[in-house]
Every structure is written in C-alpha cells, then in structure tokens.
Amino acid sequence: SLREKYNLNMITIKRFFEEIQDGKPTQVEHIIGVPKADTIIYPSDILILIGKKNDIKRFIDINR
C-alpha cells in the first residue's frame, strides 16, 4: 500500500471522463472520492496525496 511502502496517504483521485455537452464530446473532471483498497488507478488519473515532501518526491521519482 502507499502508506506502508511510501509513507503517503491518498486522499482522492481526479479523473477525466468524456461527456457529451451541447452535442459535443467534452472532457469533464470528476473527483472519485476516498479511494478503497480495490480502486483501480489509471495512467491518466491525478492522485491527491498527503505526506512529507521527501516521501512524495521519492514516490514520483520511482514511478516516472
């Protein structure tokens, strides 16, 4: 888990969905809510994390 491996907590996930607005496909941002253990993370997701700066930097460096 993020908490055990990186000392980070995931608060939520921002995800974009394509929706039809005014007859045109549009990218719309949604907040997924508090993720569960079985939540699938997609490459395009934006993770909202909380933790120490060094822990976040290490997570980013490892997962580039």
Radius of gyration equals 14 Å
**What level of helicity do the residues show?**
10-25%
Classification by helices and strands: alpha+beta
End-to-end Cα distance, whole Å, is 18 Å
How would you spell out the order of helices and strands? HEEEH
What amount of the residues lies in strands? 35-45%
Question: How is the main sheet built?
Answer: 3 strands, antiparallel
Give the helix tally: 2
The average pLDDT score comes to 93
Which sequence of strands runs across the widest sheet?
A: 2-1-3
Strand count: 3
Spatial shape: elongated
Low-confidence parts lasting 5 or more residues at pLDDT below 50? Answer: none
Your description of this structure?
This protein is of the alpha+beta class. The protein has helices at 2-6, 53-62; strands at residues 9-21, 24-31, 46-50. A three-stranded antiparallel beta sheet has the order 2-1-3, with no helix packed on it. Strand 1 and strand 2 (24-31) form a beta hairpin. The model has no long low-confidence stretch (mean pLDDT 93).
Give a short summary of the structure:
With about 60 residues, the protein is of the alpha+beta class. It has helices spanning about 1-5, 55-60; strands at about 10-20, 25-30, 45-50.
What are the key terms here?
three-stranded antiparallel sheet; single chain; alpha+beta; 64 residues
